[in-house]
Amino acid sequence: MALSRRNFLHSSAAGVAALTIGRGVMAQNKNDQTELHYLSVSAAARLIKQRKLSPVEYTEAILKRIDAVEPKVHAFITVAKDQALAAAKAAEKEIMGGKYLGPLHGIPFGVKDTHYTKGIKTTVATPVLANFVPDFDATVVARLKNAGGILIGKLNLPEFSFGGETPGTNNPWDLKRSPAGSSGGSGAALAAGELPAATGGDTSGSIRGPAVANGVVGMMATSGRVSRRGIAVISWSLDRVGPMTRTVEDNALMLNVLAGHDPLDDSSSDAPVPDYTRALKRGVKGLRIGIPKAHWFDGYDANVMRGYQDGIAVLGKLGASVSEVDLPPTMEVVDQMQRIIRISEAAAYHEPFLTNHQEQYGKSNVRRDVEAGSLIPAVHYLRAQRVRKVFIREMAELHKGVDILLTPGRPVLPSGQERVKQNFSRPWNVCGFPAIVIPAGFSTDPAGLPVSLQLAGRPFEEELLYAAAYAYEVETKWWEKKRPEL
């Protein structure tokens, strides 16, 4: 039976209070909803489905949170308040009419401002596209909307996604530190409670780096698993799009919607898409987890390595078999290979912009990098692609002996200087295999900054990564122990 909005809203207060108290979130009494903005997607979805939480009320709470903390965090380029409230009212009407679409129905989300959004500016954080308003949604945006999601706005990034930092956005755990990049706005908004779900793009670690820096979950699925149609390009053969959330279950819920063949994307895979949430409780018993030998971690921050060693111990305790592995010889040159491919392909994408709008580029290094890419001889690009094939073959061989390769999520704390042999981000863009990063605790010196684990696997085996990530999350519960103080 459809309820009136008054009844819908009346029942939501008790439902949220009960849930937050049960989760140990800072609810003071039955009417205290101050932590509504920190609900997980799965928790909010249960309440919405039960008609204990109105999508309108939830969206209003998210917008209120944005108003409160955005002056400190600066995660957004555009907040589409009017469109979001209109979509929330439509979702509420559908649900009250018995047309519940699934776990993302009525859930607010944000997207990186590389994603085309019909009728809303897509600036890619560059003066070149400052007034660009697409006439269609990127496939990932359309899929989230079709699942009933409420688009809140567009998230900040470095110009054209170039760079490992996100100028103008602050890390909620320490506002003087970087949220990393290029999906820094997505990571910061999640950590700050401005969104329960977001998307990012990953060419050199740009989902995973910000997920680590902001203490959230980021999945870079297998190349071709998620459509790139309607996404501003860095590198056609390296770019990937994926979900960013605060919990592993929420991430799996998002990938359920984002994954799948797109006939309008030539790079899209037609491999069957499972229900990723079904794998969550599989556990890690019997899984073979490989770890690189110690010399690969020379120069890594001690806080990072402490979290990594603790993570190894937890997964072993849960039943996984953990052993050292020899990484392939091409791992020594994979970063150079990736850079040649990335800037060569970026130069091709930017050619019309350089021809017609070269004076409009911002103060970043984008123009320098793409002009450098245009000077790389074809023989070097082709040689890099040939070495890439060898690397893919060698990584496939490695994974015959292990199901998952485990590394730290990032070598350093937010704003730290990397001086390491390998940061274990770019290799998975090059080979196209999936990788997920998950929170693994907090630093002690300095105190309170997030550290993470990265789990990488075989192509189209995201289910195993989710299973291991979820088992670790349930055992450690890092995601629910601490919030940024804003």
Structure description:
- With about 475 residues, this protein is of the alpha/beta class.
- Among the domains are: about 55-280, Amidase signature (AS) enzymes; about 290-325 and about 400-470, no CATH class.
- The protein has helices at about 5-25, 40-50, 55-75, 80-95, 140-145, 185-190, 210-215, 250-260, 300-315, 335-355, 365-375, 380-400, 425-430, 460-475, 480; strands spanning about 75-80, 110, 150-155, 195-200, 215-220, 240-245, 290, 320-325, 405-410, 435-445, 445-455.
- The strands form 2 sheets. An 8-stranded mixed sheet has the order 4-6-5-10-11-9-7-8, with helices on both faces.
- Strand 10 (about 435-445) and strand 11 (about 445-455) form a beta hairpin.
- Helix 10 crosses helix 11 (about 365-375) and helix 10 (about 335-355) packs across helix 12 (about 380-400).
- The model is unreliable at about 20-35 (pLDDT under 50).
Quick recap of the structure?
The chain contains 15 helices and 11 strands. With 486 residues, the protein is α/β, with parallel strands linked by helices.
**Would you identify the CATH H-level superfamily of the domain at 57-278?**
Amidase signature (AS) domain
Mean pLDDT: 94
How are the strands ordered across the major sheet?
4-6-5-10-11-9-7-8
Shape: globular
Q: Any idea what the radius of gyration is?
A: 21 Å
Q: Which architecture name of the domain at 57-278 does CATH use? A: Alpha-Beta Complex
Tally of strands: 11
Counting helices, strands and paired strands, the structural category is: alpha/beta
Roughly how much helix do the residues carry, as a percent range? 25-40%
Any low-confidence stretches, pLDDT <50, length ≥5? 18-34
Output the number of helix runs.
15
Which strand-content bin applies to the residues? 5-15%
**Largest pleated sheet:** 8 strands, mixed
CATH class of the domain at 57-278: Alpha Beta
CATH fold-level topology of the domain at 57-278: Amidase signature (AS) enzymes
Secondary-structure element string: HHHEHEHEHEHEEHEHEHHHEHEEHH
Distance N to C terminus: 41 Å
